[in-house]
What we know:
Elements: E1 8-19, E2 26-37, E3 41-45, H1 52-60, E4 67-72, E5 75-76, E6 87-90, H2 102-112, H3 117-130, H4 146-158, E7 164-168, H5 176-193, E8 196-201, H6 204-210, E9 213-218, E10 221-226, H7 228-233, H8 238-243, E11 248-258, E12 261-265, E13 271-275, E14 285-290, E15 295-298, E16 306-315, E17 319-326, E18 331-337, E19 351-356, E20 361-363
Adenosine-5'-triphosphate binds at residues 19-20, 26, 28, 46, 48-54, 202.
Amino acid sequence: MPEKPDRNAIEVVNVSKIFGSGEGQVAALDTVSVSIRENEFFTLLGPSGCGKTTLLRLIAGFDFPTAGEILLYGEDIAPLPPFKRPVNTVFQSYALFPHMTVADNIGFGLEMLGKPKAEIKARVAEMLKLVKMEALAGRRTSQISGGQQQRVALARALAPQPKVLLLDEPLSALDYKLRKEMQIELKRLQHETGITFIFVTHDQEEALTMSDRIAVMSSGKILQVGSPRDIYDRPAERFVADFIGESNFLKADVVGVSSGRATVKLSSGTEIPASLPDGFSPSGKVTIVVRPEHAQLGAASGSASLSGTVENIVYLGTDTHFHLRLAGGEPFIVRRQNSRGAGDGIVQGGQIGIMIGSDAAQVLKD
Ligand code: ATP
């Protein structure tokens, strides 16, 4: 894949958004700063109410920040009304005109901009091809499926060639299979058009599947920004580790820190290396996270980092989950990929050793 350019399309600088006043005041966004690069598939990920839609609406110009500014290619866009911003939005509800044809829906924005007829025709044809809807160009949008409506909504939003496309949970109305297909399709559309996509979702798997980078949000703040791999392998905070994927949290004592890594002592007395969040230098008691697939099972001998009892074994076809109870009473899950016909002799109720590899543990900031 070609390198993405390192130029910022959008810069959100110390933006806050307060709704209401007095007792009923809500800080939907609390001093948020983030830069989104040109030609990037960028995702705002977080639970309901964390402020994702509010941030998207401020970028679109449907609402104004209480404080801070939003720059588009270095220019403050506060004075620009929504229709003058080179930004378009795809809503969850699609907002198509049901009595109009697919082609007319796609061309609608261009008509409003007063583009010449020939240009509209050519652009609509190009968009129909891009979203693979040529065969249904003359069909009314009330007579096509949900997935097809989604494609038309995308084509309509892309037709005026916005610099930035905002997508607010656009796949949430689709069934699971179609949603999976559209995730790949959206990634392709972003790649082919080179337009910067800012995508909002509360679905971590969706965010991991599609994004170049993800911003994880909670309670009006951005907690961490990084590639899907960074966010999954190197979560900086407990909320991030918990929200994305499964996690084992362990209490540990920091016994040393050097060149961005720590040595921590587990409750068993074993010392293991652990990665640190950028710029974080802990001391004393910390929480570390170990992903279930980053720990191995073995004999409960001196070489194991921890030991525990096997409480449950869940076979899931591609992999098996071992639910363990550590000697100190904490739960611990190990996930192991299955290979054909392999029997491993691990039984429910048995004692087992857990090995935590040199790159498996991550210290959390909280
Ligand atoms: P969801 O995934 O449910 O859409 P979200 O992460 O997009 O959630 P927002 O819609 O941005 O969250 O809302 C953030 C917070 O601001 C919530 O507490 C919400 O109730 C509040 N809020 C949003 N819009 C308004 C408004 N117009 N007036 C008052 N409060 C609002």
